[in-house]
Amino acid sequence: MAGESSVAVRTPEEAVARIAYLSSDVIVSVQPSLASDSGFSTTLKNLAAQKVESLVAKSSDAVPDIQSVRYNADPLLSVFAPIRSGRFVSVTTTSAVLLPSIAHLYKLASLPVVLHVALEPKSFPDYSAITSIRNSGWTFLQSGSLQEAQDMALTAHALAIRSGKGVIHFFDPSSKTKGESISPEDTAVVRDILNLDNVRRFQSAPISGSVIYADDGRVALVSEQPEPLAGGSTQAKVQPSEGDAETPTATSHASSKSSQQSVTSSPPSVSTATTIEAAAPVVTSEDIFNYLTSIWSQLSQSVGRQYSAFEWKGPRNAENCIFIFGSDAALFSRAIGQAQAGDIFANAGVITARLYRPWLGAKIIGAIPRSVKKIAVLEQVSRKTTKWGPLLLDVLTSVKSSVGGVETIVGHQLGYISNETVNQALRGIFQNLTSEKPIQNLEVGERDRPQPISEYKLEKPKLETAYTKILNQLFGDRAFIANSLDSDNAGISNTISASPDYGFGALLAKKERRQRFVAEVKEAAGSGRFLTEVPKRSLAKWVSAAEDVKKVEAAAEDVISKLTVDNSRLSKALLQNKALFHKQSLWLVGSDAWSYDLGNSGVHHVLASGENVNVLIIDSTPYSERAAADANRRKKDIGLYAMNFGNAYVASTAVYSSYTQVLQAMDEADKFNGPSIVLAYLPYFGEHDSPLTVLQETKKAVDLGYWPLYRWNPENENKGEPNFSLDSERIKKELKQFLDRDNQLTQMMRKDPLFGAALSQDFGTEIRAQQKRKAKDAYNQLLEGLFGAPLTILFGSDNGNAQSLAKRLGTRGRARGLKTAVMAMEDYPVEDLPTEENIVIITSTAGQGEFPQNGKPFWDAIKDSTELDLASVKFSVMALGDSHYWPRREDKIYYNKPGKDLDRVLANFGAKRLTDIGLGDDQDPDGYQTGYQEWEAKLWEALGVTNVGSIPDEPPPITNEDIKIASNYLRGTIVEGLKDTSTAAISAPDQQLTKFHGTYMQDDRDVRDERKAQGLEPAYSFMIRCRLPGGVSTPKQWIQMDDISTTLGNETMKLTTRQTFQFHGVVKGKLKPAMQAINRALMTTLAACGDVNRNVMCSSLPSQSRYHREVFASSKKISDHLLPSTSAYHEIWLTDDDDKKTQVAGEAVQDFEPLYGPTYLPRKFKISIAIPPHNDVDVYAHDVGLIAIKGEDGHLVGFNLLAGGGMGATHNNKKTYPQTGRMLGFVKTADVHIACEKVMLVQRDHGDRKNRKHARLKYTIDDMGVDSFRSKVEELWGKKFQPPKPFHFESNIDTLGWTRDETGLNHFTFFIENGRIEDTADFPMKTGLREIAKVHKGEFRLTGNQHLILSNVADEDLPAMKSLMAKYKLDNVQFSGLRQSSSACVAFPTCGLAMAESERYLPILISKLEACLEENGLRQDSIVMRMTGCPNGCARPWLAEVAFVGKAYGAYNMYLGGGYHGQRLNKLYRSSIKEEEILDIMKSLLKRYAAERDEGEHFGDWTIRAGVIKETRGGQDFHEGVAEEESDEE
Ligand code: SF4
C-alpha cells in the first residue's frame, strides 16, 4: 500500500485486515462492542483514516466503507444489501458469530463474500465452529501461520471473485512464535491475483432482489454422488426442489454423509452473482480446485510460496502420518522433523487440509505417499456432537475406499499442546496408532488447557448502566436483575448467564421459590408452633397481600418485627428467608440484539409465558444511523410485537428525553400483573460518546417519531381509561397503523383533536415535494394576469436579512411591471429551474461558508447534478457576508462562499449572468447595503426596467419601536396567537412583545434540520423567565417551580446568571397555564425580558445575614418601583377564557406607563447590587451597578452607583463592545430607587432608538460623556450624587459549602453546574432539591453565578439536612477551582442566537483540562472561565479571566486578561479556534502560569504581566491591541 511499505505486519489479523481492505468495497467489521476494537478493526480504521486507497473500492476516494457492527447485532445481515448492489463485501470476525448466523450463511454462500474468521477462544480455538457449518455451501480455506494468513486471505478474495461464491478463511489468531513479523503484502501482486477485470464485471452487474427471506439465496447442496477418487471431475449437480430454499433438506443428508465431495454450485435460477448472463454457470468443486490451482501458481511465481489443497510434510517413504485439524500443525511438523532416530514418531509425515471444503477426497490420495499405512487423525474439536469426529469421517471415506495401501485410520481428540508437551503427545499418538488395537477417540494433549478467554468478553456498555441505576433507584433492594453481569452465578459463564433465556429461567425459579414460601407461610399461620399469638395474624395479613406491590411492603415490615419478637424456632426458620417477605421487582435486561431475528426468541418466551416478569430492552442504534442502516437489517419493533401479543404492558422510553416518563413506565411495569416490556432508548455511536451526542440523537429520534415515547397498559380498558398514552409528540407510521386497528387512535383524536393533527403528520419528502409544487403553481396563477417579464427571486436566509431584501426586491420588481415571485430556496421545485426566464438568488452565509438552513436543500439538489441544462436561463446572485468574520488569511475563502458557489455552478450549467455577483459585506460603511444597492441598480438595468416612470414609495421597514407603539401597551395580537392551534408559533411582532411578558419563542435547534427535511415547522417552544428580585425563593416556591418544570416544561430548570428561574421547552398550549402557575407561586414574569428594567440582582452573601436582609429590601424596592404598569400582562395571562375572572388579587391597573411611556426603553436595562467584598453579581456589567456601603454601625447607609455597564456586542463590529460601569457617585438608601429611575429616564429619552446595536445605556454615556450624563440625571432628580465611598472587592465567584452567619444560622452553597437543575441516573439532583425543599424551614438563594444557596438552616436541623444532602449527593463540593469558577449560558439547543454550544460543552472542556491543572498543581486555584454561545454575553464572558464566545458551531473566540473580581474587561486573544487549539493554548498557558506567577497573582493579571495579552482599560479600547490582528487582505 502507498506509503506503507516500511510497516511490519505482526499478527494474522493485521495481515488479513490489510488484504481485506485492498480487496473490498465494504468491510463488515465485527467488534466486541462499538467501543472495543477487534483484532482486525484497528488496522482497518487506521488505513481508512490515512485514506489509503483500496484496489477495488468504487467509492469516490477509493476508500472502502468500513461498517462496524457489534457481534451480537446480527452482523451478517449487513452483508446482503451491499453485495446485491454489486459491491464486494468481506467480513472480519471471530468464530463467535458463525453458529448463530447459520441461516444467513446458507443464503450468502452463493455470493462472492469473504469471511475472515479468527477462531475462538484465542488461547485454544475450538474448530467445531468450522466443522459445524462445513455443509453450508461455502469454500473453506485454512491458514496456520502469519505468512499463510496473508496468502490465504488473498487467495480467498481471488477465489471469491473468480468463482462468484462465498469463501470462509479461518485461522488460529494466536501466534505461537512470538515476535514474528512479515512484510506487508505487495500491492502489485495483490492486484494481479485479484484480477480487476473480474472485479469490475461483478461491480457493474448488481444482483436484483431485495429481500433475504425469499428464495434469493443459494441452497446449500452436497452431492450425494461419490466422486471418482483418483482425478477427474463429476458434475454432481443436485437440482433443488421448490421448498429447498426454506428447508434445506440437503443439509441434513449432508451432515450424515459428510465425506463426499461437495459441489459449491447453485441452481441457475437463484445464482446470478458474478456475470451478467441470465443464468450463472454452475460451479463445481473441480472448478474451485482449478481456480485455486491457478491462483496458487500465480502466487508461487510472484512470491515463491507454494500451496495446495492438501499439504504433506515429511519423507516420501513414511509409513505413519498424522492428519491435523487444529492449531498445532507447525508444532507437530517441527517436532517430527527434529525426532531422534529411535523416536516412535521419527520418519512420520504430517498432512493438513488447506482447502477444507469442498472436500476433494480424490486429492488427498494424491497427497499421501503410497507408503503410508497408518493415519492418526487429530481433531481440535471441543464441542463434539457425534461419536466420530467429522474429519475422521472425511478421511475414512476418502482414503478407505481408495486403492492405496492405508490400513489403519485412528481418530484422536486433540487437546492443548505446548512446546514442552508436543513430544510426549506424539509418543502417545504413535503408540496408540501402532498398537494392535488402537483406541478410537483417544484424547491427546492437556486437559487443563489455559482458561479460554473470549475476545468478546461480555461487558455492559458503560452508558447503558443509566437504566439499571434507575431500576435500583426506583426499587432499591426490591430490584432483582436476573441476567445482570455482576450477579453471582456460581459456575455459570457470563455468556450464558447474560442471555435472556438463562435470565428468564432464573426469574421463573425465583418466582417459584417465593410461591413456595407463600405456601409455607400460609401453613405456618395456621400452625400452633409460635410462642406468641401475634405473628399468626400478621402472617395471615401478609399472605393476603403477598402479591400486591402496594400493600405487601407494610405487611412485610410488620411480619418481620412480630417474628423477631416471637423468636420461636418456626419464626427463626421463616426469618431465614426474610427477603422473600418483600415482593421483588423482577427484571431481565437486554440489548437491542434482542430485536434482531436471532435474539428475538427471548422476548417471545417471556410474552408467551404470560408470567409477571419485566423486561428492559435497551436500544442503542442512533437515529442518524437508522437511515444509513440497510433496510434488510430487519430489526423487529419489539414494542409493536408485544402490543400485538395483547397480554403485556409495553412502554417506550428514553432517559435523555424524559426522565420522569422512564420512572413512570418502570413503576407501571412493576405493578402490572403480567409480562412487561420496557423499551429504553440510549443511542450512541461509541461507548465513549459524550452525553451531548446521546442527548442530541435522542431528541432527533423522539421528535421525529422514530422513537416515540408511549405507554400501553391493556388493563386500563377495564378501568375505562385508554390503553395507550403517547408521551411524545409524534409517532411512527407502524404504530399509528396498530392504533388505528385497535381503534385507539379514533378515541384519542376525538378526545383531543389537537393531537390528531400531530398524528396525521406523515413522513416522506414526497408530500413536501407536492406542497412545493402546489404553492408555486398557485403563485403562477396569481401572476397570470400581469404583463412584463417574469422574475423569480429565491432567498437563503438565517437571520432574516436576505429574506427581507428578497421581499423588497420583489415589491420593487412588481412596481416596475415584472411578474415577480419570491420564495425561500428550499420551497422552490428545482426541476423548474430550466424553464425560468430570469432568476435571482439572494443568500446569506452561515457558519464556515455554509448555506443558510433554508438554502441547503436547493444547493444539495443542484450541486452535483449532471442533468441541469440552463442554457435559456438568465440569473444573478447577491451574496451577504462578513469579510472579517474569519480573520485568518486561510479562512478568507469562507467570505460569501455560498453566493460565489451558486454563481459558479449556475454559470457552469449554461445560465447567463444578468449581472456579476453582488457582494454585501458587513464591514462596508453601510453594511451589506453598500454592495446591495450597487447590485440592485445593475439588475434593473440588465432587465431593462431602470426608467419606468414614477415608482410608488415603499413603506419603511417595521422596527421594534413601531411594534411597541402599535402594541397598545404590549398587547399586540398575543391573545389571538395563543388561540391559533394551526401552528406552534406566534407572529413575529408578537415574538418581540412576549419578551416584555417574560417569554421568548425558541425552537429546538438539535432537530431543526431533521424537521425541515421532513417538511415540518421547527419544534417551537417557549422559554419563560421569572422575575425574582435578589434571587430569594421560599421552599414552597421552589416546589412550585419544580412542578412547573416537570408538568409544563422540559423537566429541567435553569438558574440563570440573573438569579432567577428559567423554564425551557414550554409549548404554546402550556404557556398560559405555566404563567398562571408562576403567579400562583407569587412570582411574576412581567419585565423579565424586553426593553424595560429587568430582574434586579443582589449579592447572595450567606455570611452576613442581617445586613443581607437590609440590602435585599432595597433590591425589592427598586424592582417594584420600576415595574411596568400595563395591565396587558394580567389580561393576557391571568384571566380565564371567559376573560372576566382575574386570577390574582388586585384590580387591573389603568393602561398608562408613567415611567416608560408607550415605547418603553430603547433597549434592555439591568440593575444589580453587590455587597463588598463579594462581587458575585458582576456589578460592573450592568446598566446600573450599586455597591452597598455599610455604615460604622454595621447597617446599610447607601450605595455607590455605577452606570453604563453592559455585555452585548457583535462579532467583528468594532462599533459594539462590552463596557464596565462608570462611577456616578454615592446615594443614600432612601434615595436609591429614585436615582435608578432617573438614570433610566435619561436613557429613555437619550438612548438610540434607531440602531438597536447602539441603544444600550453604555453607548449613551460614552457618546454623551460621563460628566454630562451625570448632570442630566442630577437635573432630573433635583439632587446631587455624593463622592463615592471607599469599598473593596475580593472576588466574583461563589464560595461553595457550609458557612455560618453572625446570627448563628447555617448556609450551604451547592455547586449547580451552569445552573441546570435536572435529574440524571447518576445524579438525581432535581429530586434531591425537591426533597430538601419539602423539609427546609429557611429560604433558597439563587446566585449570580448560577449556583444555589440553602439559606438559614438552624443548628438543630443540620443533621437531618446533611443526611438528606448526602443521600442525593448534593453535598459534593469537591470540584476543581476552575470548574467552581466557571459559568456558561444556555445556547444550544434552545437559544435562537447561539452560534456554538455553551452549557452542554463547557463541562466537557473543563474535564479535558483538569488533568493539566492537576499536573501543574493548579487544581485548587480559582480561575474564572466563562463561555457563551454568541456575543450577546449572557454569562458575562468579557469579565472573565478567560472566556470563549461562540463564533460558529465548534469554533470560539478566546479572550484573556479579565479581572479576577470582575473589575476589568478581557481582550480577544484568538479568533475562531476549535477544541484542539483551545486545549493546546490553555495547557501551555496554565503551565506557564503555574511556573511564573507571583504569590497570590490571579490568572487574568498574570496574562497581562507576562505580555500574553494587553490590558483592556475600558470598553472603548476593547478592540485595541488585540493579540491576533485581522488580516485585511482579500
Ligand atoms: S449568550 Fe447568546 S447563545 Fe448564550 S444564551 Fe445568551 S443569547 Fe443565547
Automatic annotation (TrEMBL):
The prosthetic group or cofactor this protein requires is:
siroheme; [4Fe-4S] cluster
> What is the top EC class of this enzyme, as a single word?
oxidoreductase
Q: Which domain of life is it from?
A: Eukaryota
UniProt domain Flavodoxin-like: residue ranges: 791-940
Keywords assigned by UniProt, alphabetized: 4Fe-4S, Amino-acid biosynthesis, Cysteine biosynthesis, Cytoplasm, Heme, Iron, Iron-sulfur, Metal-binding, NADP, Oxidoreductase
- Give this protein's Gene Ontology molecular function annotations: 4 iron, 4 sulfur cluster binding; FMN binding; heme binding; metal ion binding; NADP binding; sulfite reductase (ferredoxin) activity; sulfite reductase (NADPH) activity
- Catalysed reaction equations from the record: hydrogen sulfide + 3 NADP(+) + 3 H2O = sulfite + 3 NADPH + 4 H(+)
Q: Which residues form a coiled coil?
A: none
Query: What Enzyme Commission number(s) does the record list for this chain?
Result: 1.8.1.2
Task: Identify the metabolic or biological route this protein is part of.
Answer: Sulfur metabolism; hydrogen sulfide biosynthesis; hydrogen sulfide from sulfite (NADPH route): step 1/1
Q: Which CDD domains match?
A: TPP_PYR_PFOR_IOR-alpha_like
For whether the record's keyword set contains ATP-binding, the answer is: no
InterPro entries hit by this protein: CysI, Flavdoxin-like, Flavodoxin/NO_synth, Flavoprotein-like_sf, NiRdtase/SiRdtase_haem-b_fer, Nit/Sulf_reduc_fer-like_dom_sf, NO2/SO3_Rdtase_4Fe4S_dom, NO2/SO3_Rdtase_4Fe4S_prot
Q: Which GO terms describe its biological process?
A: cysteine biosynthetic process; sulfate assimilation
Cellular component terms (Gene Ontology): cytoplasm; sulfite reductase complex (NADPH)
> Where does the UniProt annotation locate this protein?
Cytoplasm
Q: Main subcellular localization, coarse class?
A: cytoplasm
Q: Which Pfam families match?
A: Flavodoxin_1 (PF00258), NIR_SIR (PF01077), NIR_SIR_ferr (PF03460), POR_N (PF01855)
* Known role: Catalyzes the reduction of sulfite to sulfide, one of several activities required for the biosynthesis of L-cysteine from sulfate.
Name of the featured protein: Sulfite reductase [NADPH] subunit beta
Q: Which organism is it from?
A: Lasiosphaeria ovina
